[in-house]
Specification:
This protein is α/β, with parallel strands linked by helices and 569 residues long. The structure holds adenosine monophosphate.
């Protein structure tokens, strides 16, 4: 706890970055008084963990291991290297790395500098990265050389070219691995330089816990994805409350299976929660169950986090290879709805307790508790992580609370839920109620115990096994095709992913084939997970009473594979 934290203001304009909306001072004061916000920055926290747990193993990646002291030292070196490069406190830096320990090193290096990591996903391509860089006004971009047969240096060259002359130019690209002839800075050069001497080299004021610490990407519902601002205070609490619920301690070993920059993997309680508890984070280089099982046995992993599509693969691989999973205390499953039937089979099949997690990068995280009865664990997605999380379940049409137990839209407010998107346009205000509740767009039922069951969605988003697709973003790209007059992206049930995107088009002249549509979208630099699995051309769209495309009807027709021609067919 930082003893000065009571004095830190938390209103807009108190940070070096005016682009984000902080909590009103009355709430901020309440969260501090309750001890939810401790006034520590992530740079301070790492230093303290190094003092407390110095020689313990913090991080494992293959046969490479970092003690807490080594991780702290690496953060100093990287921060110094970034400063030599010309990056400064408050600069935003897009971080796009696969699951490698260096993600954690550089994340803390940025924190020590007071710079702000922007979490991109490895699957993002030119359209997403250019948008993230422009919206955040990123001064830096960190990539791997190659991963999963994709050359990120080529992507970085494109984005760098586009952003070099912008008002807020992209000034530096750092490459983990071989920069080849890209002309970009090598990560090892940054890392291997002298560590900064904090007293003499740091001429910027130190960041405070009320400052912007990182930017997460929203799944998006309208237009292009938005950026979610998270402060040191709120994000540290996000991780700490999760660590408390999961009872993490120094003997815990967390396996990062899902993308490490994903909020679920990084802070629910994930990487940060494990480090806070003095435990060990093991990075899985790929999400395959065989890799996970090998690492669980080798490192005596105690907990990990999966998305629902991975669960059947775990079952199948377990039946084949019968790994020793006895070190696991629990496995979290979240980011999309886990079918009750799979949840019920989980523990009998794997012999490991299940924890369901339902949350959002915007804030609120719900967990089933480790001592909850089986029925709650198998049929609900948990209850809020903090006693200060405020929940309303309302009729989406008029915002009035529904009777207890009835389905309604979840609205939430609390000590780690945002009050506004970063540099948001006016349309983003619709995501919040006038009294500061975030409208999640999820339909839930709440039980008397406080547990929530996710029953559907009112937002125009497709959840492909945990990867979120904003329908309007892809529709915008589809409409750019010269033959397309109208476009709708709709989620259809999918055995593997739970839900998959399908595009319905009205075309002028001969319609493009599905393969042509997909190639067109790829050419526009769209990430592969957003590409429609199915493309259907119709003569006209079904319309609602107010003349909007009726996506419910389209989804029903697609699900029944009955898309035919015409609105009344
Ligand atoms: P993200 O911000 O990418 O984590 O996405 C958040 C959204 O994912 C939520 O608003 C939900 O729509 C969905 N989601 C996350 N976890 C679950 C879950 N356990 N069950 C159902 N939907 C979920």
């Amino acid at each position: 706890m930082n003893p000065d934290h009571e004095d830190q203001p938390a209103g807009p304009g108190t940070t070096v970055d005016p682009g984000w909306v902080a909590w009103p001072e009355t709430d901020a004061r309440r969260y501090r008084a309750a001890g939810f916000w401790t006034g520590d920055t992530f740079a301070d926290l790492l230093r303290r963990w190094a003092q407390q747990h110095g020689g313990r193993t913090a991080l494992v990646d293959g046969d490479r291991r970092w003690t807490y002291r080594q991780l702290d030292d690496a953060a100093d070196r990287i921060s110094a290297g970034l400063r030599r490069l010309g990056l400064r406190r408050g600069d935003r830096v897009v971080l796009q790395l696969p699951n490698r320990a260096e993600f954690v090193e550089i994340w803390f290096g940025l924190q020590r500098l007071g710079a702000v990591p922007v979490h991109a996903m490895p699957g993002h391509r030119r359209a997403e990265i250019a948008h993230l860089a422009a919206l955040s006004g990123a001064a830096g971009y960190v990539v791997a050389d190659r991963h999963a047969r994709f050359d990120y240096r080529t992507l970085a060259t494109q984005v760098y070219g586009e952003r070099r002359t912008a008002d807020e130019p992209l000034r530096h690209v750092v490459v983990l691995g071989d920069p080849a002839d890209s002309g970009f800075t090598s990560y090892s050069g940054l890392h291997d330089g002298p560590p900064e001497q904090p007293a003499t080299a740091d001429d910027d004021p130190r960041p405070t816990a009320a400052d912007l610490a990182l930017l997460l990407l929203s799944g998006g519902t309208t237009g292009l994805p938005k950026l979610i601002p998270r402060s040191h205070d709120d994000y540290a609490y996000n991780a700490r409350s999760g660590a408390e619920i999961c009872r993490l301690g120094p003997d815990d070993v967390y396996l990062a299976v899902l993308p490490i920059g994903f909020n679920f993997t990084f802070a629910c309680p994930g990487v940060l929660g494990t480090l806070m508890a003095g435990g060990t984070v093991v990075v899985a280089p790929n999400p395959s169950p065989a890799t996970a099982f090998r690492l669980i046995e080798q490192e005596r992993v105690t907990c990990t986090a999966l998305n629902p599509p991975l669960v059947p693969y775990w079952f199948a691989e377990y039946a084949d290879s019968r790994p020793d999973l006895s070190s696991l205390r629990f496995v979290q499953v979240g980011s999309a709805r886990l079918a009750d039937e799979l949840a019920r089979r989980f523990t009998p099949t794997l012999g490991v307790p299940l924890q369901q997690v339902y949350g959002m990068a915007e804030g609120l995280i719900n967990y089933t508790r480790l001592d909850d009865p089986d029925e709650l664990v198998c049929t609900t997605q948990g209850r809020p992580g903090s006693p200060a999380d405020e929940i309303r379940v309302v009729d989406p049409a008029d915002g009035r609370p529904v009777p207890p137990g009835e389905p309604g839209e979840l609205h939430t407010r609390g000590p780690y839920t945002l009050r506004g998107y970063y540099r948001a346009d006016a349309s983003a205000a619709a995501s919040f109620t006038p009294d500061g509740f975030y409208r999640t767009g999820d339909l839930v039922r709440q039980l008397p115990s406080g547990h929530l069951t996710v029953v559907g969605r009112v937002k125009d988003q497709i959840n492909r096994g945990g990867e979120k697709i904003a329908a309007t973003e892809v529709e915008g790209h589809l409409l750019a095709h010269p033959a397309v007059r109208q476009a709708a992206l709709v989620g259809v049930p999918d055995e593997q992913w739970g839900e998959a995107p399908a595009a319905v088009l009205v075309c002028a002249g001969p319609p493009p084939t599905a393969a042509e549509v997909v190639a067109f979208l790829r050419g526009r630099g769209l990430a592969a997970y957003k590409l429609p699995d199915r493309v259907e051309c119709v003569d006209a769209m079904p319309l609602t009473a107010v003349g909007k495309i009726d996506k419910k009807v389209l989804a029903q027709r697609l699900a029944a594979t009955m898309v035919t021609t015409g609105p009344d067919a």
